[in-house]
Specification:
Blueprint: E1 4-8, H1 16-24, E2 29-32, E3 41-45, E4 48-52, E5 64-67, H2 75-87, E6 97-100, H3 108-121, H4 133-141, H5 154-174, H6 182-197, E7 200-201, H7 203-212, E8 217-220, H8 246-249, E9 260-266, E10 269-271, H9 284-292, E11 305-307, E12 309-310, H10 311-320, E13 325-329, E14 339-348, E15 351-353, H11 360-365, E16 367-374, H12 391-404, E17 408-412, E18 420-422
Parallel strand pairs: 1-8, 1-9, 2-5, 2-8, 5-6, 6-7, 9-13, 12-14, 13-17
Antiparallel strand pairs: 3-4, 10-11, 14-15, 14-16, 17-18
The structure holds inosinic acid.
Length: 429
């Protein structure tokens, strides 16, 4: 049986939550492989609402949930989330939660640095979620991170903290901030260590075992390809690789395990935070789509920027991430528009581009070239088969499929799990 890797093919918030829930209910294992508690989604199971940031989506239904080494883990945020979800009646034990022991930690000093940098950047800020994600990844790559396994060696931790803090103290001094309180940090880590260590293990080994036993694995990506640190709209990106290939490196299973790559694509475009957005709408239509689509961030509550569907970006994301098929979400938000537009290329300094150039200044200057189509007045909300859709909505979906050069595997027509039109089952295909 195939495994499935779910990734966002735009700037995150494509509606991965609903699709992941549906797939998680049929998976034996759900694996997070990048990002941290900057992600967020709301699960509704049997009428109860659960808000998850760091825990994989399988946790609520008791499915084995794995936090892979590619994630950056804030142990206090994890403890708070586990307590919150347990208070809702979900049991979380080392039977259903496994955390990679080589996972780097997010510490309070990372959150401090995230905030200091954003404040200092003023108008040039990235618009991060303020969770310390970027600074934690920097320390991982800089080979000075504190990792989960270090919590089992508290005797050596003091020396490790000295090295880490020497680096951070210099940065903090540049911002006029006092040095890190090492003793307090050591005490806080010692206190939280037993909680994290309950779940810690070499997860690559556990995954190897379950894979051999024929388990269906769902890799749950966070954010989106356009926020990828290499392939996204750099520097307005997150600090991890959000592409499908990370599922392998960020979990310790080889690339052959990633299976069907399902790219989640919203029927229009949104982004939170700063950075280029060629099809952004500053008009009434943008306002209307934002309201109808409830476009507010799950983690930060920030209003999302909204624009027309950009086929250039999604084609690029699908190619970069080797997407097998897409799930098109929130088509119902476009219901009732007289005309709908799709971006098919960019005009930049008199030239036409069929891709997004890499330089930030060029990206900011890209003017969208639109194709206009007739909209549909009938509702698509709740449609469960292609035949239920208005003819113009079908034309819109087919045109998207052609332009992005990737098949549509499913269409989601409301937040309800069953309001889905299934063309290809990712677990079976
Ligand atoms: P960071 O990941 O907190 O460093 O934020 C970097 C950029 O990624 C900012 O533009 C954030 O708004 C964006 N970002 C991070 N996580 C998410 C997410 O889950 N959905 C959408 N955007 C995100």
């Amino acid at each position: 049986m195939a495994n499935v890797t779910v990734i966002g093919a735009q700037w995150g918030d494509e509606g991965k939550g609903k699709i992941v829930d549906w797939l998680a209910s049929r998976a034996d294992v759900v694996v997070r492989f990048q990002g941290g508690h900057n992600a967020g989604h709301t699960l509704v199971v049997d009428g109860k609402t659960y808000k998850l940031s760091l825990l994989p989506s399988g946790i609520v239904s008791g499915t084995l949930s794995v936090i892979g080494n590619g994630v950056v883990l804030d142990p206090w945020a994890l403890r708070e989330e586990v307590a919150r979800i347990e208070a809702q009646g979900v049991r979380i034990t080392d039977d259903n939660l496994a955390i990679a022991d080589n996972c780097p930690l997010i510490l309070p000093l990372h959150r401090d640095l995230d905030a200091l940098r954003e404040t200092a950047a003023g108008k040039g800020k990235i618009g991060t979620t303020g969770r310390g994600i970027g600074p934690a990844y920097e320390d991982k790559v800089g080979r000075r991170a504190i990792r989960v396994c270090d919590l089992a060696h508290l005797d050596a931790l003091e020396a490790q903290l000295d090295r880490l803090c020497a680096h951070h103290d210099a940065l903090r001094a540049g911002f006029g901030q006092p040095p890190v309180d090492r003793a307090a940090l050591l005490a806080a880590l010692s206190e939280v260590a037993p909680f994290v260590l309950r779940f810690a293990q070499p997860v690559w080994k556990r995954l190897k075992k379950v894979r051999r036993a024929g388990a269906r694995i769902l890799f749950e990506g966070a954010q989106g390809v356009l926020l990828d640190v290499d392939h996204g709209t750099y520097p307005f990106v997150t600090s991890s690789n959000t592409v499908s290939g990370t599922a392998a490196a960020g979990s310790g299973l080889g690339p052959s395990a990633t299976g069907f790559v399902l790219g989640i694509v919203k029927a229009y475009t949104t982004r939170v935070g700063s950075g280029p957005f060629p099809t952004e709408l500053d008009d009434e239509i943008g306002q209307r789509l934002g309201e109808r689509g409830h476009e507010f961030g799950t983690v930060t509550g920030r209003k999302r920027r909204v624009g027309w569907f950009d086929a250039v970006l999604v084609r690029q994301s699908c190619a970069i991430s080797g997407v097998t098929g897409i799930a098109l979400t929130k088509i119902d938000v476009l219901d009732g528009l007289e005309k709908v537009k799709i971006c098919t290329g960019y005009r930049l300094r008199g030239k036409v581009y069929d891709y997004l150039p890499s330089h930030a200044a060029d990206q900011a200057l890209c003017e969208p070239i639109y194709e206009e189509m007739d909209g549909w007045s009938q509702s698509t909300a709740g449609a469960r088969s292609y035949a239920d859709l208005p003819a113009n909505a079908i034309k819109y979906i087919q045109r998207i499929q052609e332009l992005i050069e990737c098949p549509v595997a499913l269409v989601s027509t409301s937040p309800e799990r069953d309001d889905t039109i299934l063309m290809r089952d990712p677990f079976v295909d």
